[in-house]
Amino acid sequence: MDLSRRVFLNAPAALLAQPRPAPPEKRLLQKRISADLLRRVVRPRADWRPWPTADDRAAWQALPLELKTSVVTAAEENLGQSWPSLPASLFLDYARHGNRSRYERVRRARRDRLTLAALAECIDGRGRFLDDVLDGVWLACEESFWGVPAHIGVQKAGNTLPDVAEPIVDLFAAETSATLAWIDYLLGPQLDRLSKLARPRIHMEIRRRILDPLLARDDFWWLGFSGSRAVNNWNPWINSNWLSSVLLVETDADRRAAALHKIVRSLDAFLDVYHDDGGCDEGPGYWSRAGASLFDCLELLRSASGGAIDVYDMLLVREIGAYIYRAHVAGPWYLNFADASAKVTPDAVLVWRYGQRVRDEKMQAFGAWLAGQEMEPRRLAVHESMWRSLQSLFHYEDIRAASQSARPPLVADVILPGTQVFTARMQQGSDRGFYLAAQGGHNAESHNHNDVGNFVVFCDGEPVFIDIGVETYSARTFSSQRYEIWTMQSAWHNCPTINGLMQAPGRQFEARNFQAQPGSVSMEIHAAYPGEAGCPRWLRELALDRKSNRVVLRDAFELARRDSVEWNFITHRTPKTDAPGRIVLDARYVLSFDPALQAQIDEHSSEDARLRPIWGPAVRRIRLRLDAPPARGTYTFSIGLA
């Protein structure tokens, strides 16, 4: 038996991981949090004081000087500047041209300025930023829609201008509601001194746009009540902001209790789609609004109930949290299957606090290490979410202290059988040597790419073979044209092309017999291809050879059609053919393969604003082609150092 074969078989069979379907309607939260409990233990609005208000000068003045200076100085740069406008023609840019970034960029600038001004006024306390706060609040209240054009199509009037008679609750409408609710909480008396009409307007708009429609309607897909579509990060993200709005604005006891219980029911729909291993099929970038927003919800409930509602002993909650450090490769790099970016910046304080709540020392260490990577105090403490910003501000000193000696966990082996994700590195706690990650899954996952059997390879903490990720979102990204986009196609992943055909989208196009053990993984991927590919069997095996510091790929197939097979290897590095069966990348890494395969190197621009900061101006694809392949064949590839 050759060395590469031994790599696949050197772990006991008891460690093999098999996929398990997520059981429906587990109702984990409802078993612990009843409507009666919510009514009894959640404090009335007037009695809930989770963070110091601006009037508590001692608390705000006690923040570290470097933090206060960083926030106030940034807010001062906006004073006297005009606010950007959001005309109707800019809103229509999405419907007309499919461009969503121009409107979203202006809208985001308005929200960021408002959040920064509010926090700066709380810190400074001299009224210098109050006009900026009032302007930002009033502008938001006068917007026809708090969300973004890409999300308005669910209204009865369709994908056009917002119909103010039918409030639609998307991610950013809910987020705006929470931002205004927190500003009302923090700076209520100060706003009253400017005008007695400001706060009633805030309350009226939050009720009209968020509280009333969410209490009355069950048909927003992200609630999880219709059963027609699996929920994703939208569910906890919106629920966390709805929850803040209810706790801070709703005064009617019956409506308050009904809304809280509805939020708990909706969150159960989110937990129901998770496997026991806590794997996030949307990737680590979306974890910040999936698992992390679940944590926001649980923290809000815990705080508002004075600790009476605490479900942090729930194993699934712990596993969902652990995903973020399990998906960490090294430095700024993360495992980025699907639409996730290869570079992610999680909220350090949130990760750290989540780790504390679930008593996960690795997660705590990871959060503290993340804090140590951010030198700018404002960037560590101020986020899009006002709730998260307050948490970060008032835990700033503690996490800075914890970060002094923190190191990332860099887990040696990760096996998530539910989402069929596998990772392996040479040694626990070290980024030295090769790192391998692979996935099975199916081609109807949230933010799906056609990428069953895809893998990535890093070495010494730097990418070698990559998952490109996704370009800037446009109208095509979430339309029937999604798989016309090159980054979504299996031919631009580290997947084979069989008889000229790529993988197809849909739940039935899947990996089968996924098996993983420390250091190696195997799966059958032929079912990810349409029947016309003429491939009744394709067994893919990947292994990290820890003895020789290399990655081994073995594909064994059977073909009913025998036109051609191409193996695709995607990289941002510069590959050069060194000899038959040998390609060298950047004079450092070597891809070795059967010399009978014909190599061709393609280049594709990655000038897109979302891709260039990660991969540079271009990515390359190594295509290894075999014409007239045998009816049965096995081909082995090795990735090592030059």
Would you kindly provide a written description of the structure presented here, covering whatever features stand out?
- The protein is α+β, with helices and mostly antiparallel strands and 642 residues long.
- It is 37% helix and 18% strand.
- The longest helix is centred in the N-terminal third of the chain and has 24 residues, at 101-124.
- The chain is globular, with a radius of gyration of 26 Å.
- The chain starts with a helix and ends with a strand.
**How many beta-strand runs?**
21
Principal-axis shape: globular
Low-confidence stretches: 1-20
Largest sheet: 8 strands, antiparallel
List the helices and strands and how they pair.
Layout: H1 3-9, H2 35-41, H3 57-61, H4 65-76, H5 88-91, H6 93-97, H7 101-124, H8 130-142, H9 171-194, H10 198-216, H11 234-249, H12 253-272, H13 284-287, H14 291-304, H15 315-326, E1 328-330, E2 333-334, H16 348-358, H17 361-373, H18 377-381, H19 386-394, H20 396-403, E3 413-416, E4 421-425, E5 434-439, E6 442-443, E7 455-459, E8 462-465, E9 496-498, E10 506-510, E11 512-517, E12 520-524, E13 537-545, E14 550-558, E15 564-571, E16 575-579, E17 582-585, E18 589-592, E19 598-605, H21 612-615, E20 618-627, E21 632-641
Antiparallel strand pairs: 1-2, 3-4, 4-5, 5-7, 6-10, 7-8, 9-15, 11-12, 12-13, 13-14, 14-21, 15-20, 16-17, 17-18, 18-21, 19-20
